[in-house]
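Below is how a single chain appears once it has passed through the pipeline. First comes the sequence as given, then the structure the pipeline wrote out for it. We keep one example in the README because the format questions we get most often are answered faster by looking than by reading.
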Amino acid sequence: MPSDAAVAVEVVYRSDWGRIVATLIGLVGDFDLAEESAQEAFAAAVESWDQGIPDFPRAWIIQTARHKAIDRIRHRAMSQEKLQSYADSGLLPTMEEPHYDTEEIPDDRLRLIFTCCHPALAPEAQVALTLRTLCGLETDEIARAFLTSPATMAQRLVRAKRKIRDAGIPYTVPDIGGMAERLDAVLTVIYLVFNEGYAATRGGDWVRTDLCAEAIRLARLVRTLLQPHPPSETTALLALMLLHDARRDARLDETGEVVLLENQDRSRWNHAQIAEALTLVDEAFRGKPGPFALQAAIAAVHCQAQRAEETNWPRILQLYDRLERLQPSPVVSLNRAVAVAMVHGPEAALAILDSLTGDLAGNHLLHAARADLLRRMGDTANAANSYEHALKLVTNEKERCFLEKRLAEVTAASVPK
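Resulting structure:
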C-alpha cells in the first residue's frame, strides 16, 4: 500500500505537473532542463515528505526543482560568469516565500501554450509539445493520439524543443497582432487539454477535473485578452467545453461505472453552466460558424433535450454534415456515424464505420462503436468480436470495465437457451 507521502506526490503530479513545468520554464528558459528538474524534485519529494507533507506542496516542488536546475547548470560546467548572468537577469530569483498566487499560474501556462504554438514550429509539433509539457502526457500517449510511433513522436518533440532554443523563441504572450497567427493552434491545444481531462487516455480515472477546469480557465483568459471583439471560434470553444463539462457529474454512477449520455440523469447536469454556454453558442453563430461553433451547436442540441428520446438527431446529423465538409477527418466521420445510426438505422452507420477501418484500426472507439451497432442489430456474435478487439486497444480502466460489461452481456445473449 502506498505511503501517505507517495499518495500526496501522485496527487500533486497529476493535478499540477503542467503548472509546475510552465513556471519552471519561465524561470530557467529551457524545456528539457525544466522537465528534468521537475522529475528530480518529484523523486525527492517521495522521500522527503515521509517526514511531513509541506503546507504548499506545489511551491515545495518548484523551489526544489529550481535548486536542481541550478545544480544541473553547474554540472554542465558553465562558467561562474554564466551562472551569475542567470541570477542577474532575474531568471533564477530567490523564493523566500513558498506561495504562488492562483492568478499567476494561468498566465504561466498561457505563456507556455503560446510559446509551444509559435508559427516556426510545425502544427503537429506545436500540439505535441504542449501536451507533453502542459499535461505531462507520456510520449507513447501522444503518439497514440497522432496515430504514429513513439519513436517518431520522440524525434518530433526533440526537434521542437531544439528549435525553440536555437531560434530564441521568447517565453511570452505576444501582442494582439502576434496572437492572431497562433490562435488556431492555441485553441486546438486548449481543447486537446480538455479532451484529455474529459476522457483520460489511461489510468483508473475517466475524468480529470483538474485538466477540464484549467482548459476552461485558459479559454476564458484568451477570450478576455481578445476583448472587445473575440473571434467567434474562441467563444465557440469556451461554449463547447462548458457544455461537455456541464454533464460531468452524471457521467459516472454511484459505483463509479460509466454512464452513456442516453442513460444519464439529466437533473445532475449543471444547468446554470449550460445556460451560460447556450448564450455563447448563439454569439459564435452570428458570423460564419467554424469547426468549434458547429461542435458546440451539436453539444447544445444534446443539452437542450430534457430526455434522451427528445434529442433532435436530424439536427445533429445536419450539423455533422456541415462539420465533415468543413473539417473532414476520420474522427468526425466516426461521430457522424452515431448520428446516422439514430436517424437512418445501425445498418447505414455500419457502412460508414467499415470505410474508416484503415484510418482508425488502432482506435478502440471505432471497434466499440461497431460493436454497439452490431449489438443493436442483434448480431451478438460479431458484436462480441468487436468488443474483444476494442478491449485489446483500450487503455483507460473505466472504459475497460464498461466494455467488459457489454462483452459479457452480448456473450450471454448469444448462448442458446
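The first helix runs from residue 4 to 28.

See the next section for the split statistics.
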